[in-house]
């Protein structure tokens, strides 16, 4: 169950990272409120997950999910470059996440 909670926390991290773009410097009320709620929920779920998961592993996976998801959505939503080097780096992060999960 802790792994599912951690995965949800990672998805919420993606949500608030992308949400930052839509707040336009925290000048838009609804995106700002939703982004803030996502931040709080993400950290709370991470805190719940680390009750049973190793802290370093959980934190690395949480940030890895957020990083990979944010980069992918940046490519899709904001036309950020999808160069071979960027995609290769994403693959390395995914490999690291998988490795940490397998060794936890």
Automatic annotation (TrEMBL):
<keyword id="KW-1133">Transmembrane helix</keyword>
<dbReference type="GO" id="GO:0022857">
    <property type="term" value="F:transmembrane transporter activity"/>
</dbReference>
<dbReference type="InterPro" id="IPR045324">
    <property type="entry name" value="Small_multidrug_res"/>
</dbReference>
<keyword id="KW-0813">Transport</keyword>
<feature type="transmembrane region" description="Helical">
    <location>
        <begin position="29"/>
        <end position="50"/>
    </location>
</feature>
<keyword id="KW-0472">Membrane</keyword>
<dbReference type="GO" id="GO:1990961">
    <property type="term" value="P:xenobiotic detoxification by transmembrane export across the plasma membrane"/>
</dbReference>
<dbReference type="Pfam" id="PF00893">
    <property type="entry name" value="Multi_Drug_Res"/>
</dbReference>
<keyword id="KW-1003">Cell membrane</keyword>
<feature type="transmembrane region" description="Helical">
    <location>
        <begin position="84"/>
        <end position="103"/>
    </location>
</feature>
<comment type="similarity">
    <text>Belongs to the drug/metabolite transporter (DMT) superfamily. Small multidrug resistance (SMR) (TC 2.A.7.1) family. Gdx/SugE subfamily.</text>
</comment>
<protein>
    <recommendedName>
        <fullName>Guanidinium exporter</fullName>
    </recommendedName>
</protein>
<dbReference type="InterPro" id="IPR000390">
    <property type="entry name" value="Small_drug/metabolite_transptr"/>
</dbReference>
<feature type="transmembrane region" description="Helical">
    <location>
        <begin position="57"/>
        <end position="78"/>
    </location>
</feature>
<dbReference type="InterPro" id="IPR037185">
    <property type="entry name" value="EmrE-like"/>
</dbReference>
<dbReference type="GO" id="GO:0005886">
    <property type="term" value="C:plasma membrane"/>
</dbReference>
<keyword id="KW-0812">Transmembrane</keyword>
């Amino acid at each position: 169950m802790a792994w599912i909670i951690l995965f949800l926390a990672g998805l919420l991290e993606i949500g608030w990272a992308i949400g930052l773009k839509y707040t336009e410097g925290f000048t838009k009320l609804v995106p700002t409120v939703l982004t803030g709620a996502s931040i709080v929920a993400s950290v709370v779920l991470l805190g719940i997950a680390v009750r049973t998961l190793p802290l370093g592993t959980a934190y690395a996976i949480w940030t890895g999910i957020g990083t990979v998801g944010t980069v992918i959505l940046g490519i899709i939503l904001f036309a950020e470059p999808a160069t071979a080097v960027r995609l290769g780096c994403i693959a390395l992060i995914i490999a690291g996440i998988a490795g940490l999960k397998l060794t936890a």
